[in-house]
Design a protein that fits this description.
The chain has 308 residues and is α/β, with parallel strands linked by helices. It has one domain: Aldolase class I (TIM Barrel). It has ten helices and 14 strands. α8 links the parallel β13 and β14. α3 packs parallel to α5 and α8 packs across α10. The chain is globular. 52% of the residues are buried.
Length: 308
């Protein structure tokens, strides 16, 4: 990592996990290769979240699966493609370097019971339960909109692992605060907010929706104000750590999330536009800001907006 000097100013803890800095790779980007995880970590990420892993392999949707927008945003409908939990377990079985959080997706509590039990034996630091994918039927958001299912899934995960379990919530049909409360009551150690938001783009030449799935999830700068609002409300309501996600493109965005109440933040779309060096760039910017303002630690900024 390019930031060794005074990097202790970026150290923090989230749900018992010690991180060297708050910048985390979000689920969905370059998330199924141990070699890529190590490259991203070497580029400055504090931790990495895998792509969402299901019990059995998923092929995902056919192309086109991504629309690139001008304002550092994407609409994607990849379809949760992944190799399945058995194959991914083998992929990360040798991991002894990267602070890795495994994202899990499923449609039944038994899926999460099997997967958390399996990965609990590996050298990962925690789990993120994807309850908010906006474009795959009977998974993600459809599950996350069912409070009873959320309760059962979180309890199934928690009962089969000793590692922290975070729940990733989104903008669905159920109130964000209510579904987060359900997850926390069931034992969730923290909340990741937010996931992508249902969106689409239509060609004015052939009149067709561009994505093969027609509807996808909007990510990047376009959703940042919504994500900031969600983090602010969640952190004001709950004492568990909130991980901010949605539109972090630079160090100013990252600080805004933390000041809104996020203990740490995730980014993905920005890496698609600016490459892996975005992690070092953001960490460098935060360090310069801390020294300029006279702060001793990035932890001093968490939730500062709630004082006004």
């Amino acid at each position: 990592m390019g930031l060794e000097i005074e990097s202790n100013m970026l150290n923090l803890e989230i749900a018992g996990i010690s991180l060297r800095n708050p910048a985390i790779l979000a689920s969905g980007f370059l998330g199924i290769s141990q070699a890529i995880f190590e490259r991203i970590f070497d580029e400055g990420a504090g931790a990495v979240v895998s792509k969402s892993i299901s019990k059995y392999p998923m092929e995902g949707f056919r192309n086109p699966t991504v629309v690139v927008l001008e304002n550092k945003s994407y609409i994607n409908a990849v379809g949760l493609s992944n190799p399945g939990h058995e194959s991914f377990y083998e992929e990360v079985s040798t991991n002894d370097k990267v602070p890795l959080i495994v994202s899990l997706v499923g449609s039944d509590p038994s899926d999460f019971e099997v997967m958390t039990k399996k990965f609990n034996k590996s050298r990962i630091i925690g789990f993120e339960i994807n309850l908010s994918c906006p474009h795959v039927q009977k998974l993600g958001m459809e599950v996350g909109d069912d409070p009873q299912m959320v309760k059962s899934i979180v309890k199934a995960a928690k009962s089969n692992t000793t590692k922290p379990v975070f729940v990733k919530v989104g903008i669905g049909n159920t109130n964000l605060i209510d579904i987060s409360q359900t997850a926390i009551n069931a034992g969730a150690d923290g909340i990741t907010a937010i996931n992508t938001i249902r969106a689409m783009k239509i060609s004015i030449d052939n009149f067709n929706p561009i994505l093969s799935n027609k509807i996808g999830g909007l990510s990047g700068s376009s959703i940042k104000p919504i994500a900031i609002r969600c983090v602010y409300e969640l952190s004001k309501k709950f004492s568990v750590p909130i991980i901010g996600c949605g539109g972090v493109s630079n160090w100013e965005d990252a600080l805004e999330f933390m000041i809104a109440g996020a203990t740490s933040f995730q980014l993905g779309t920005a890496m698609g536009f600016d490459g892996m060096s975005i992690f070092n760039s953001i960490n460098s910017g935060i360090l310069k800001y801390l020294k300029k303002k006279g702060y001793q630690s990035v932890k001093e900024l968490i939730g500062r907006s709630h004082k006004y």
